[in-house]
Specification:
This protein is α+β, with helices and mostly antiparallel strands and about 375 residues long. It has two domains: about 5-240, Rossmann fold, CATH 3.40.50.300; about 250-370, RNA polymerase II/Efflux pump adaptor protein, barrel-sandwich hybrid domain (OB fold (Dihydrolipoamide Acetyltransferase, E2P), Beta Barrel). The chain has eight helices and 20 strands. Bound molecules: adenosine-5'-diphosphate and magnesium ion (MG).
């Protein structure tokens, strides 16, 4: 699978970059690179998320930026200065670790004060900073408690206060909400996002949860196998994935093999495995490859009878599964000679459709994207 070429820096102007990874590679065993050729700028004030499955190199990248791991090759710049030789406490970076390990024998206030000790800040000055940090996360009254006396969400806020207490310009968070239940996680996403905007800090955030990334980020770097697959704002990533990995990882996509046939009226014409012809937007094609994938989201496939704007692409198949999901039905349809196509159909439209029956579906060429990789 291709990734971004090595010389693709991001859209950030270099004077606006707080962080720059330049040709960074990391190997733990001297044989395999787990971060392969990372070129990435993070702009001042930006919320940048590294999103990817487990093992894709996100934590390693964050640890290198925080100073807990060294790049095997390449350079990391902070405000234009190389930082490889700076220890973590001299980088002025706040860090919330994956398992935000609070010290159980210390009070909340002592936990939050911990990073100040490393920086030689004690006494009244430290007390004032701790109070301010606890106030920011809504825990001003909890300073004397021990972590075990707090809920999971409150413990998470203590970890946040500890990362903010020395007023860093950059904060790194590694899956900070992983231990929380869904509702609390969604509330904390919004709280963290508000804190980041109101304090004007730059955030580099790691998650494997695509909806979390879409909610919080200015830009998302999608990681897979030690490489950035695509770097874009959430809307672009969702609407215009550039390869099959991103198409499959962000939201849901039907991705089906097809062969390029030609162009017609500004659209690409492709032939599916069973010989059916479909039309698709061809914005991405470099033109070299004939064997492609056609990608279309389940919400963009409807019943043929219900298409108001003319037929677009029409195809038929046999319903293999049908699930009720409250606001829609989810249909699995065997089409194009055995390919499973998933469609989301409004509940009110599914009358007369049953497992084993034939269904006629439609999708607009504008919603069909062709992928080369
Ligand atoms: P992610 O955070 O995306 O799950 P990681 O950066 O933790 O990915 O891991 C990337 C790869 O590096 C994985 O294959 C992992 O097993 C390996 N790895 C991570 N940390 C270490 C380490 N300290 N020593 C050896 N291998 C490691
Ligand atoms: Mg990780």
């Amino acid at each position: 699978m291709n990734a971004m070429p090595a010389d693709t820096f991001t859209t950030v102007r270099s004077e606006d970059a707080l962080v720059r990874f330049s040709q960074v590679k990391k190997s733990y065993d001297g044989i395999h690179y787990v971060v392969k050729d990372l070129n990435l700028d993070v702009a001042k004030g930006e919320f940048l998320t590294m999103l990817g499955p487990s093992g894709s190199g996100k934590t390693t990248t964050l640890m290198m930026l925080g100073g807990f791991e060294r790049p095997t090759l390449g350079q990391i710049l902070l405000n234009g200065n190389p930082v490889e030789r700076l220890p973590p406490e001299r980088r002025n970076i706040g860090f919330v670790f994956q398992n935000y390990a609070l010290f159980p024998h210390m009070t909340v206030a002592e936990n939050v004060a911990f990073p100040l000790r490393y920086r030689g800040i004690r006494g009244a000055a430290a007390g004032a900073k701790v109070a301010r940090a606890l106030g920011r996360v809504g825990l001003e009254a909890m300073g004397d408690r021990r972590p075990a006396q707090l809920s999971g969400g409150q413990q998470q806020r203590v970890a946040l206060a500890r990362a903010l207490v020395f007023e860093p310009s950059l904060v790194l968070m590694d899956e900070p909400l992983g231990a929380l239940d869904k509702q609390l996680r969604e509330r904390m996403q919004i709280e963290i996002k508000h804190l980041q905007t109101s304090l004007g800090i730059t955030m580099v955030y790691v998650t494997h949860d695509q909806s979390e990334a879409l909610t919080m980020s200015d830009r998302i770097a999608v990681f897979h196998d030690g490489r950035i697959q695509q770097l874009a704002d959430p809307k672009t990533l969702y609407n215009a994935p550039e390869n099959r990995f991103v198409a499959g990882f962000i939201g849901e996509n039907n991705t089906m093999p097809c062969t390029f046939v030609g162009r017609e009226a500004g659209l690409a014409v492709v032939r599916m495995a069973d010989g059916a012809t479909l039309r698709a937007a061809d914005t991405l094609l470099s033109g070299g490859k004939a064997e492609l994938s056609l990608s279309v989201r389940p919400e963009n496939i409807g019943l043929a009878s219900g298409q108001p704007n003319g037929p677009g692409n029409l195809f038929s198949g046999q319903v293999t599964d049908m699930f009720f999901l409250g606001d829609h039905m989810r249909l699995s349809v065997a089409a194009f000679g055995g390919q499973t196509v998933t469609a989301r159909i409004p509940v009110g439209q599914v009358r007369g459709i049953a497992v084993g029956g034939t269904v006629h579906l439609a999708c607009s060429p504008a919603d069909c994207r062709l992928l080369e990789d």
